[in-house]
Amino acid sequence: MGILESENLCKTYGLGSSEVKALDHVSVNIEDGEFVSIIGTSGSGKSTLLNMLGGLDRPDSGTVTIAGKQIFTMSDEELTIFRRRNIGFVFQNYNLVPVLNVYENIVLPIELDGSEADTAYINNIIKTLGLGQKLTAMPNMLSGGQQQRTAIARALAYKPAIILADEPTGNLDSHTSMDVISLLKVTSREFNQTIVIITHNEEIAIMADRIIRIEDGKVFLKEKAGGVYA
Questions:
Q1: Which of 7, 2, 1, 3 is nearest to 23 (CA)?
Q2: Which of 86, 168, 205, 230 is most buried when burial is the number of CB atoms within 10 A of its CB?
Q3: Residue 143 sits in which domain range?
């Protein structure tokens, strides 16, 4: 069994002639420690799938299981707590809190949960991501790459088992994009996290251990970086 699994996920938006099947019986299995890219054209359903895998939205039918727990059997409050403790999110627009400095943004999920930060662990993340000289800087003082590094550090801070990243390089230039993906690979190994990244960029996708392609709400091909796998 993988650490993250979906079975027959279905999600439809709209009614009648405007109905869109965002997900059509989607089943995926992601193993502990894998770095997986989900790729597809705009509107293919890849972001909807990521939202379901992370419990940010509920499907019309189907299941998502994380570490043996079916997350959609939980109440909204239970799911919020489970998500905060087990999943780190990285978004294209960074979603940093503008009135908090870099360090405060990084430890925010831990403080929201009323927990104590593991200072040694946080400092290791900061060192790995090269943020040591920026801890007191506000988000508007940072470059796009620095903001995304801060968002990655925040996602890692609670020691989640899974990192879900939705187009994390969409607002970055090509050089910085490759740096960010390389850093995600490093942190995946360093901190033993499973990473799932949504992207439309083939060059970024092939840096993952495995690629899942989705079109029209259906998974139609899974492949390893070197060729077709299933």
A1: 7
A2: 168
A3: 4-224
